[in-house]
């Protein structure tokens, strides 16, 4: 396996170039997605200077957190079953997969602090993907006003599985447009300044289109 420090250097350089190309100035935070690697490997990520770790299963998150704990910020990036909310919700710093009202209800009931959430959108409309359709996102966010523990920090999406860069770029661009629309609503519980988009194969495009969090597994720790 390649050294994480070297992978990170390479990725940081690519992110810098992507920002230069697009003349964008946003801060980009790299989330090391450690779902497929050991706790030991996740520790190497911390040693390489990464702070943000992403997991997509309650078991994986809790196992790693029990050893790494507050040396990392914890991102839950997978779809979350309502019955698993109580296991993880007070253990994480960000949830990237808020996609339904019943989940919001359960989070609000179990949370002992404000939970930073991304609303997951399925902009590409692919059947296999989780997330709300484009048109559902704003009504959904407006419906969350009653929940005192939920803060909508941004939107999240996954690009479709395709080699076609223009299709990927359009998905990211649409998410950015949607985020701007949410910002304009001026909702106190939904500042929505962040965009969680871009993975190993498409993070450069995502950064060009305004990503502020990229979620990278294979190319970084894999
Ligand atoms: C696994 C996963 C990633 C990372 O994918 P890579 O292609 O390994 O970089 C990012 N986001 C989500 C939601 C994931 O499940």
TrEMBL record:
Cited function: Pyridoxal 5'-phosphate (PLP)-binding protein, which is involved in PLP homeostasis.
Protein known as: Pyridoxal phosphate homeostasis protein
Location of N6-(pyridoxal phosphate)lysine modifications: 35
Gene3D superfamilies: Alanine racemase
Domain Alanine racemase N-terminal: 8-222
Organism the protein comes from: Ureibacillus chungkukjangi
Keywords: Coiled coil, Pyridoxal phosphate
Similarity remark: Belongs to the pyridoxal phosphate-binding protein YggS/PROSC family.
Cofactor(s) in the UniProt record: pyridoxal 5'-phosphate
Pfam families cross-referenced by the UniProt entry: Ala_racemase_N
Residues in coiled coil: 1-28
One GO molecular-function entry: pyridoxal phosphate binding
InterPro entries: Ala_racemase_N, PLP-binding_barrel, PyrdxlP_homeostasis
């Amino acid at each position: 396996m390649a050294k994480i420090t070297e992978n990170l250097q390479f990725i940081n350089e690519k992110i810098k170039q992507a920002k230069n190309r697009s003349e964008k100035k946003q801060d980009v935070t790299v989330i090391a997605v450690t779902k497929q690697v050991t706790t030991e490997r996740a520790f190497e990520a911390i040693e390489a200077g990464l702070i943000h770790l992403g997991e997509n299963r309650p078991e994986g998150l809790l196992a790693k957190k029990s050893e790494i704990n507050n040396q990392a910020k914890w991102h839950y990036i997978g779809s979350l079953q309502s019955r698993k909310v109580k296991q993880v919700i007070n253990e994480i710093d960000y949830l990237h997969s808020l996609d339904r009202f019943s989940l919001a209800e359960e989070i609000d009931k179990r949370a002992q602090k404000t939970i930073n959430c991304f609303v997951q959108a399925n902009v590409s409309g692919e059947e296999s993907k989780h997330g709300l359709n484009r048109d559902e996102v704003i009504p959904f966010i407006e419906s969350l006003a009653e929940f005192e523990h939920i803060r909508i920090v941004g939107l999240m999406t996954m690009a479709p599985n395709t080699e076609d860069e223009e299709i990927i770029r359009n998905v990211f661009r649409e998410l950015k447009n949607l985020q701007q629309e949410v910002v304009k609503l001026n909702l106190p519980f939904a500042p929505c300044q962040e965009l969680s988009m871009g993975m190993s194969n498409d993070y450069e495009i995502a950064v060009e289109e305004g990503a502020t969090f990229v979620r990278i597994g294979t190319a970084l720790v894999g």
